[in-house]
Fold this protein.
Amino acid sequence: MDQVPIRTATYIVISLFSGDLIDAMTGAEAGWHSIGIRFAGRPGAPEVRGFCELELTSFIEGLNRLYKRGIQGLAPIQSLIYLLISQGDADTLDSLFNFISKGRAEDMYEAVRGAHSTLQQAKLKGVRGVNKADREFHIYFNDMARALLRG
């Protein structure tokens, strides 16, 4: 997780919230923001190594739309998320999070293309857990495509 940008780590945490919590957050008349800080150094002498302020309202609303269409957030692809993290592929995760936030097809395309490429590379390397992540990938994105095409 040390290799993952703060913004990506924040989106991962939010994406694992329950549907009820996401629905309640969407129903609240509030804007949602996050501040993330990464520290390094030794005890007693911490150093700030990263800072990120995020506006999360559109991401939370996008997650809620997925839940309403029967997609259980990102919990069904936890193994895929962990594989992408372990392979240092934050760009693919960011594309997925951008798709959830903005609903742009090109972001979904980038997420699917990036995940597929990382899965293929992980298979060649013999990375542990790649088969489970690959199954999650196929099931999740097929389900998402069906849900989105239904409108």
Observations:
- The first strand starts at residue 33 and ends at 42.
